[in-house]
TrEMBL record:
<keyword id="KW-0805">Transcription regulation</keyword>
<dbReference type="InterPro" id="IPR052067">
    <property type="entry name" value="Metal_resp_HTH_trans_reg"/>
</dbReference>
<dbReference type="GO" id="GO:0003700">
    <property type="term" value="F:DNA-binding transcription factor activity"/>
</dbReference>
<dbReference type="InterPro" id="IPR036388">
    <property type="entry name" value="WH-like_DNA-bd_sf"/>
</dbReference>
<dbReference type="GO" id="GO:0003677">
    <property type="term" value="F:DNA binding"/>
</dbReference>
<dbReference type="InterPro" id="IPR036390">
    <property type="entry name" value="WH_DNA-bd_sf"/>
</dbReference>
<protein>
    <submittedName>
        <fullName>MarR family protein</fullName>
    </submittedName>
</protein>
<dbReference type="Pfam" id="PF12802">
    <property type="entry name" value="MarR_2"/>
</dbReference>
<keyword id="KW-0238">DNA-binding</keyword>
<dbReference type="InterPro" id="IPR023187">
    <property type="entry name" value="Tscrpt_reg_MarR-type_CS"/>
</dbReference>
<dbReference type="InterPro" id="IPR000835">
    <property type="entry name" value="HTH_MarR-typ"/>
</dbReference>
<keyword id="KW-0804">Transcription</keyword>
<feature type="domain" description="HTH marR-type">
    <location>
        <begin position="1"/>
        <end position="146"/>
    </location>
</feature>
């Protein structure tokens, strides 16, 4: 016998995964427009630059792990950045099958230009939140992410 659905019906406007997706899409659209118009880079390219700006040099799989982007997206972004002279590729001494990516001087300069703009956009997006709300939001997002990563599906 098929069990009936629970009393709670699905309503997208109150379904948290949907709300997170919609909020993410809205924020990403604003950020993508900023990055494209001001710096001629995509969100994926910025994520690669930002990760390398914080922890370079790094193998592409490390970027995949940190950004949660798929391998193809990271590879395309890295290749585009390398072609434009923002990223350099070098053999990985620890793993001859892999390579490490690092920001060039031009890439570092771009990072140092974009990072303050990204922080300013974040401040603008969160301006209506109290400091404790920002902290709570950060904490809750980390917990939701951890719960999602722990799902065994």
């Amino acid at each position: 016998m098929i069990r009936a659905m629970t009393d709670r019906a699905l309503h997208l406007d109150s379904f948290i995964p949907y709300r997170l997706s919609v909020a993410t899409n809205a924020v990403s659209a604003v950020i993508a427009t900023l990055y494209q118009r001001r710096f001629a880079i995509s969100i994926a390219e910025w994520r690669v630059i930002a990760i390398l700006g914080e922890s370079e040099p790094l193998a592409p799989r490390g970027i995949v792990e940190r950004t949660k982007l798929d391998k193809v997206t990271v590879s395309r972004a890295a290749k585009a950045l390398e072609t434009r002279g923002f990223v350099a590729r070098a053999a990985d001494a620890a793993d001859q099958r892999s390579h490490r990516l690092a920001l060039t001087a031009e890439g570092r300069a771009l990072y140092e230009t974009v990072a303050p703009e990204a922080l300013a956009m974040e401040a603008r997006l969160l301006a209506d939140l109290a400091e404790w709300e920002r902290g709570a939001l950060d904490s809750l997002l980390r917990r939701v992410q951890a719960a999602a990563e722990a799902c065994d599906i």
